[in-house]
Amino acid sequence: xxxxxxxVETIIETAQEEVExxxxxxxxxxxxxxxxxxxxxxxxxxxxxxQRGTLKLYHYHPMSDEVYxxxxxxxxxxxxxxxxxxxxxxxxxxxxxxxxxxDVFMIDWGVPRPEDTKLGFEDYVTDLMPDCFxxxxxxxxxxxxxxxxxxMGGIFGLMYAGAYPDAPLKNLACAATPVDMEGMGLFRKWTxxxxxxxxxxxxxxxxxxxxxxxxxxxxxxxMDRWGGYIRLLDNxxxxxxxxxxxxxxxxxxxxxxxxxxAYRQFTKDLMWENKLMKNTMTLNGRPVDTKAIxxxxxxxxAEHDHIAPYAATRxxxxxxxxxxxxxxxxxxxxxxxxxxxxxxxxLWPRMAxxxxxxxx
Length: 360
Description:
Elements: H1 8-34, E1 46-52, E2 55-60, E3 72-75, H2 93-99, E4 104-108, H3 121-140, E5 145-150, H4 152-163, E6 169-175, H5 186-190, H6 198-205, H7 210-220, H8 224-234, H9 239-253, H10 260-272, H11 275-278, E7 282-283, E8 286-287, E9 297-302, H12 310-313, E10 325-330, H13 341-345, H14 347-356
Parallel strand pairs: 3-4, 3-5, 5-6, 6-9, 9-10
Antiparallel strand pairs: 1-2, 2-4, 7-8
Helix pairs in contact: 3-4, 6-10
């Protein structure tokens, strides 16, 4: 602030700083509006070691010849791009894990095609995931592997571990993974079976359009988008802030279709029947017995997660049969829990430390 008592030199210096900030606001504002110099994402070196349909299994290049014996397989959600865990250089969870000496793989489900509308939980958990794990075993020469699942990827990890309790799964780490659908707040109200005809929806349009998913997320907190724009306007002069905003904005707006049959199952088996919480889930006649999960289980949750609320995520470790469980509750939301500057100081070290002692 300029006051009448300040020296002229200070007033001029302050004015020049404001002029420069205004120039930066205009320049950065035009970049955002015109989408110039789009940030690069998902650039950590990797190989596609297996591909089937839209699915790709990535093997990231290790940073050292010495890696932990047990590889980590990242399992992603069906409705979002996987590079949220590999944002950009210096803000990549994948790079962090590699730097800590882990051998990292990722299951990228890809963007479902119209013909993929019939894909259900059975296809993902009892067919595609076991296929991927076999290729991980071939690539590493190790029988054991760990799963790290984010959001719905954590649900798939739980389903797999419960359906195959004798599999050589060494550890299960989940982040922002809902299990008690009674705690899903507005999502549960919007899918109330008295009013929501999921069969008609899926039978009519097939895969659920990404815009429908995005708008449903936005309606949980309608002012978040506008609040983000206001913060952007206030910080347009700050190159790092703008860069971080554009990365997150890009990921948030690049939702992908939800395979129709999987959406039907998610609604009926999970949202309506709460089968994971009640331990009554079956896949292709195979029981998904979460109490049969005896391996170490870690679950990270965010205090202010509005997509997977704390009430829905909190009971996860209570439904497994393992004696080695850990709950980690951190500040932040659904995305900031796992990605961005805060995550690299809060969750990433906790996750890496927990896995390191169990990956030998």
